[in-house]
Amino acid sequence: MTGAVAATDKPGGRIPALDVARGAALVAMFAYHLVWDFAHFGYIDARTPFSPDMRLFSHVIASSFLFIAGLSLALARRRPFDWRAYGMRLAVIVSAAALVTAASWLLFPDALIFFGILHCIAAASLLALPFVFLPWPAALAGGALAVALPQFVASRAFDPPALMWTGLGIAIPASNDFRPLLPWAGALLFGLAAGLAMRNRGGFNALARISGTSAPARLLAFGGRHSLAIYLVHQPVFFALLTASVWAFGSPAPSDERPFRQACERECAASGPSIEKCRHSCACTAQTFKRLNLWNKMRAGQLDAAEQTILSRVARNCLKP
Questions:
Q1: DSSP assigned state of 200
Q2: Cα gap 276→184, rounded to integer Å
Q3: Host H or E run for residue 64
Q4: pTM of this prediction?
Q5: pLDDT computed for residue 315 by the predictor
Q6: Is the CB of residue 314 less than 8 Å from the CB of residue 285?
Q7: pLDDT at 3 over 70
Q8: pLDDT tens digits for 152-173?
Q9: At what angle do helices 227-249 and 215-225 cross, to 10 degrees?
């Protein structure tokens, strides 16, 4: 969500256009995460965030943040190189990534974020560091290699958790945000190459002269200047608001879930739990079966004995406090 630095060649200066671009990427991320949250809380179909269009949208957003981080890293190539500023910024990103991992372990242990977008930015910034001191075509070639390697070197030898972050494995982990180093470091290296080329041609000086004065531009620039902090707090805020909404008004069932959830809630309430607890339990059961790709079979009454056992286990787990 942040670059290595966000300064121009002038000490303390900033490039408002980059802040606006980073702020726009934040807005796009808010939109995607709201779709994910609405699905999680039962306001829309649980499969919506995993549709091809939404997955493409999430990839574009991640690529945007990484590309902008690469542009920002190009701005760090001063003489002498400010190792202290680079190290402090990297430490902040690593700490924020660790915080995201800890929070996801507490909230979603079965979908742990162990190498998400922040982890990728931190690791890619380290990988890209040597390219900062080389001509821009080297970074461009490095980016192309990073994108191509997973297509040609994929191996189950990289599937163990200790190596999965590389992106060279075949298995796809159950994670709410997985952005392995390869190929995603390629987007940061492409941004670095673009930034280094711009430095050679005065592109950043030209970009610094662009400053939006409208209220939306100023708001986006503010978000871009504080992108890391906003990234860390936005999901807890969304979750708190949606949790309050669900507890106050209940979670509206998607049309395909209503018959199941109505029957489920009646059966659940008859066995003793409160209607509120049953409502949440039945919504959880429906969403879990959609994620397991067993929803259509259940609606058609075609579950086999093993799948019926899974249904019973899911229902019990969803009913737990």
A1: H
A2: 43
A3: helix 52-74
A4: 0.76
A5: 83
A6: yes
A7: no
A8: 988 999 999 899 999 999 988 8
A9: 100
